[in-house]
Amino acid sequence: MNVDSLKQELANAIKMLERAGHIDFNGHGSARIPGTETILINERKASRSSVTADDIIAIDLDGKVVEGNGEPPNEFPLHTEIYRHRHDVNAVLHTHPKWSTFFTITKVPLRPVIIQGAVLGEIPILEKSYSISNKKMALELVETLGDKSVALMKAHGAVLVGQNLQEAFARSVFLEENAYRQYMASQIGYAHSLDIAEIEEMSQFIWQPKNIEKVWVNYLSKL
Fold it and tell me: Can you point out the beta strands (E) in 36-147?
């Protein structure tokens, strides 16, 4: 994928997150330009509901703008430090999801209760609600995330990573849907988790390129 196409894909991802209610006037996404230490990220002033490829800028891992007009979001260290420490990651999304954030506020464990939740794995929580707008906090988040693909931040939001934007986006969808189902089921009674065998089998079944693309195409069709 060339850089222009990657910019458009990132703009689409951000708009889809906004329409899905995973971000609002805040929240941001980024993608690594393949084979480089440069990332694409949305310009901080651009409306998340109408962001275009022209609102995507390129920055280095120190946050310096190397292409485009504008400035990166205040929390750009969240992105740059993940890329610096995770060479397997090519996409990062920082969201403010409603349902999954409730679990960090109440400190009720978020568990895999539906098959989409099986792919999320262990979800660590950064036990601080601060903005990830400096290197110190970003490194704490990197440590919390470890080699996982999803992490939550207490009373703040989530970070989701992937080998590409479609993977990171699908994880955001699965995270919020699983949290919603767990919350709603708990209003009736105890929300039971999937058992270990179900998690292993369903995670392999669900996490396939064709299913990840299906999620992406479904949300893209709504733009």
Answer: 38-42, 56-60, 65-67, 91-95, 125-126
